[in-house]
Design brief:
- The protein has 13 helices and 26 strands.
- The longest helix has 14 residues.
- The protein is globular and about 75 Å long.
- The N terminus is likely disordered.
Length: about 525
Amino acid sequence: MLPSPGNGARSISTAGKEPAKTTGPPLDNLALLQMSAPAVGSVRGKVPLKPGRSLLDWMRLGKSGKDLAGTNGKLLRVTTEELARHCKEDDAWMVLNGRVYNVTPYMEYHPGGVPELMKGAGIDGTLLFNEVHRWVNYESMLEKCLVGKYIPSAVKTEKSNSIDNLKTKASADGISSPSYSWSQTETTVTVLLLSAGSEAVEQEQVVVDHSNRSFVLRLLIDDYVFRVELELADDISKYSVSANALTGKIEVVLTKEVPGKMWLSLERDGNKNILQKKRIDEDVEFRKFSVTSITSVTHDTKLLCLELPLGMHMIVPVGCHVFVSDTISGELVTRSFTAVPPSLSLEKPDEPLTYGRYLHLMIKIYPDGLLTPSIGNLKPGDTLDVSTTYSGNFRLSVLKDIRRLILYAAGTGFTPMASLLHHCLIKPNRTVRDVVLIFFNKQTRDILWKEQLDQLSSSVSGFSVHYVLSEPPSDWTGLTGRIRKELLEELSPKPADEEKVLLCVCGPTQFTQKVLKFAGELGYSDEQMFAFTG
């Protein structure tokens, strides 16, 4: 199979790393396109490729201007029936996370061989990909092969027993739509959403956007978004959002600007329906977030505190990212950046994070980057176009019963780890007993939040941090070099039988691949590893 998908569209790594301008493809994308080893926990491997079928050859083909998708530049809406017709080696389409790709031209370039790739021809190959390399960003690899959007139907195909049909059924059934109701008193209006089934709902899954009389509620559950569009009968002075994880109840209380006035309706055009979409099919909308403060973290990295637009409420969950967009030289540029806590200090309150009114982004400024130089020139009072939703597939539920958490980070791959450390070490009701961070950087000056990490290490029992430098100073007494198996053996040895352990990794693609490969060789199962990508 092809390397499997990551999470971001038109985005860089989850850590917010931006490739410099080059004449060839970014190094990270090159690494994404060719795996150097079989998948962790898999028997699949590479096969010999014909001359002229290397990774660089594929990249050159993508830049040649040839119509690799075979659609003359048009994006199509592809039904299940149409997809099933393209199931031959010389005519193969495949669905990955709701998008259809023509993988025919990639056949001879696939390191895993043609037969492996053909397993997904004519069907939805998402689950098959996720079984092999779920951390890899397939979008940059198949960008020129995009046919269009997949429109699944209930019609059975010849491959009726394939994983595709199981996936289609799950997607068609999806998650039951939550129920919706509202009530009022003389001073307030209460909107209730009750998630169906046993789905636990956290406040982070509720995004609110209020402007004038428009009030939009979005509930994010797994791969789906449920949207309620309301038209307020009168003005409100404020609102509050709460969620009960045990009951699945979301309660939004609106405070009336004019007490005593009873509202006759709340639905837009009398429509009480809840709109349901797959999150991947939802258009990304942007609003202007205000820059309230900018703090230097290192010589080339800044911490931005952004205030959400008036009326908007959004708390970005641990390990998830938002999209930032700007027009550079007349061209729209979009990148993804992982949200971080305001700090890892044990003394500073984190009210802005708690109430969903502020967003913090830790961004490395690349002098030759496309987007980050303009971000580096921002000052308090300026605005930045940020998405009104977030993306990412990490769920805090994976930490349930985990007793040992191992974090491997390189450079700005630290950003999702910062949120994990904040959740596991600073928030109350700590459940993870032992946490270790192995943090790779070039020089001492590149280490993000080193002072705070050292303070945590000395103050919080069960937490330790190891710094690894590739360009250490002469007086450095810590670990040196790059990622290697011997280091994993020393710092994160083979887990004991039945041990509740989770190893997370984030950084440049080759770094991530090596950590997962070495951890797999040491005996970590797929369920005991998680890679942040995007």
